[in-house]
Amino acid sequence: MATRQVRVDTTERPRTSDVERDFEFTSADFARIRELIHRRAGISLSDHKRDMAYSRLARRLRACGIDTFRHYLDRLEASGDSAEWEAFVNALTTNLTAFFRESHHFPILADFAKRRQQPVSVWCSAASTGEEPYSIAMTLIEALGEHAARQCTVLSTDIDSQVLAKADAGVYSLDQVKPLSTERLKRFFLKGTGVHEGLVKVRPEVRALVKFERLNLTDSNYNLKTPFDAIFCRNVMIYFDKPTQAQVLSRFEPLMKPGALLFAGHSENFTYVTQAFRLRGQTVYELARDAKAGAHSKHARVLAGEVA
Ligand SMILES: C[S@@+](CC[C@H](N)C(=O)[O-])C[C@H]1O[C@@H](n2cnc3c(N)ncnc32)[C@H](O)[C@@H]1O
């Protein structure tokens, strides 16, 4: 691509990266992007995400053949073009994940699933490229056996359509599965050969438990009919401000069966946001109303999987 003359925002000192930029990128552009992504996805972009926003959205400008951020954002807002809005959101999400990330949660889930006297339904609400929901499915198979696990469901949602497509394919590089034990690798993955050398694919029996759908956690209605035994909402609330976190948690509450668990990311603390949840330990939450009932009723404790 030909190098363009770079104009920098005259209201501020040029940043090192400005001199390498193809497109003018002003503070007003960044402020507008922040406002739009917050409105659309609840994501709060901090100042230090400015370069990230530039480089990810510069690709959209190139793809659309537009040469200023202002025109791109004008067109985005005016058009209501849902495909471009989707691309805009996809560009600004952060999708870092891994198999059995925050590994302490999986034995807790295994134990919970064994004690629960019914097939468990799990909602993985920020599933990214699929490593998390597949880890949940593998845990259920290990805990309950293949036959009983087949009755379980792992609904896996994310706002980002691109990561969901990758998750749906269930194909990963050998590097991505390197931390898994040989036993898990053999049991849950097919090894690619020929042109697929260096890749693995999640086995159909794991894949069968997992269903992928696009869902925006900041939507006012999730359209989810049945409540869940466990919700995984890990490492997504960190991108939301406190009022957005409170809204999301208030929508989770009616979607949790009695005794259900909510799994959070390592740096997410929901007790500062709402009194509806109580920390059980290790970033796992339960509904406060269950905790109260649990103190009085053996039935509720059985439902919560606390009494064998
Ligand atoms: C850092 S990843 C975390 C993935 C996984 N939960 C984990 O802990 O490994 C955050 C995910 O949240 C998704 N996300 C961001 N905003 C969202 C929203 N409003 N609704 C649903 N998902 C969202 C992103 O697309 C991204 O895939």
From TrEMBL:
GO molecular function, one term: protein-glutamate O-methyltransferase activity
Domain CheR-type methyltransferase: residue ranges: 18-290
InterPro entries attached to this UniProt entry: Bact_Chemotaxis_MeTrfase (IPR050903), Chemotaxis_MeTrfase_CheR (IPR026024), CheR_C (IPR022642), CheR_MeTrfase (IPR000780), CheR_N (IPR022641), CheR_N_sf (IPR036804), SAM-dependent_MTases_sf (IPR029063)
Catalytic function, reaction form: L-glutamyl-[protein] + S-adenosyl-L-methionine = [protein]-L-glutamate 5-O-methyl ester + S-adenosyl-L-homocysteine
Single GO biological process annotation from the record: methylation
Superkingdom of origin organism: Bacteria
Binding site for S-adenosyl-L-methionine: N95, T97, R101, E132, D158, N216, L217, R234, N235
Alphabetical UniProt keywords: Methyltransferase, S-adenosyl-L-methionine, Transferase
EC number(s) given by UniProt: 2.1.1.80
Function: Methylation of the membrane-bound methyl-accepting chemotaxis proteins (MCP) to form gamma-glutamyl methyl ester residues in MCP.
Protein name: Chemotaxis protein methyltransferase
Lineage: Bacteria, Pseudomonadati, Pseudomonadota, Betaproteobacteria, Burkholderiales
